[in-house]
User: Fold this.
Amino acid sequence: MKIAFDVLPLISERMTGIGYCQAGQMQAMMALHPEDSYILQFFANGDGAEKRQRLKAYEKAHTELRQGKCSGYLYRLVSNFLPVPYRHFFGSDADVTHFFNYIVPPKVDGKKIVTVHDMVYKSFPETVRGRTRYMLETGLRRSLKRADLVVTDSEFSRTEIIKYFPSAAEKLRVVPCGVDRNRFHPVENQERIEETKKELGLSGEYFLYLGTLEPRKNLRRLMLAYNTFRKGKAEYPKMVLAGGKGWMNDELFRAIEELELSQDVIQLSYVPEGQICALMSGALAFVFPSIYEGFGMPPLEAMACGVPVLTTHAASLPEVVGDSALICDPYQPEQMADSLERLYRDSKLRKELRQAGLQRARMFSWENAAAILYDVYREAVSG
Assistant:
């Protein structure tokens, strides 16, 4: 097959979960099927040198870069209203073209696959940026019609898509995400952990949250839970919030201020790639209290680092962590506080969760995901 990937999620300055999902599935597929040829397609004004440089890591002997000489943002905006042919920029020779970011543009030749990661813009619209919500509200229904098959990350997301778009049910296929155990692995060297902590301005024990600071991550309730947990203790672990500031954070920062947590909640806006494993491995536990996830990669990545995980029974999270994490109700800060207390007090529980988490993470490989996705491509081409 000749397989084309729209690589918009891979050329941003900082990749999101969608980018890592595409990178994992795409690279594993290229390794599993070198007999096929691959096209990496992107929009860029001028020579696109910066974007080409970001794609260097994905270029193999059997890949080709194709640049559409146009602003990607402008094309997405205009094609939302006018059927500007995608094939005009990228040709018509691909057997399959896969769009990993919800939207299939107009007039794409060959078979069209789209990944729809979740329905958060429908279920929790107040937690989604206005521009993103607008693009999905105006474009997703058409995108689902244009697609020959629709990929999603979990059984939970499949049922969510059917709830809002029942006509898409027959097209849906579940392809789980994976975890790169070269990127995420236990750090046993305590000196390296202490070095990393020092470089990041940390000391002593800490709970860790790593991800975007945004409303659906439920961090305001985590602050309420942490405040309950620390009461009556002379010493207790800090709470580290690591990750980029998203949007609509006022409630979180107001809670930190009102609960007088500013000395105990440490905010790390950006953690360099080379320090993530050591930061995770040094944590007493990884805390991920989200109320909505299409898949939920961070808990899986923490498990791969050998860190005990506390998460919630919301959305796809139980599907991802199985019985290898401590589970709480995302809407009950008291229950969350009790779970923090258990993790703090019970070293035997932490050890059991470490071992269970490592085993669970081994079940989710990008190679497995790529094999399932390749079957989706073959189904589309033969259909």
About this structure: The two ends are 14 Å apart (CA to CA). The longest strand covers residues 37-43. The CA atoms of residues 126 and 215 lie 8 Å apart. Residues 130-146 form the longest helix (17 residues).
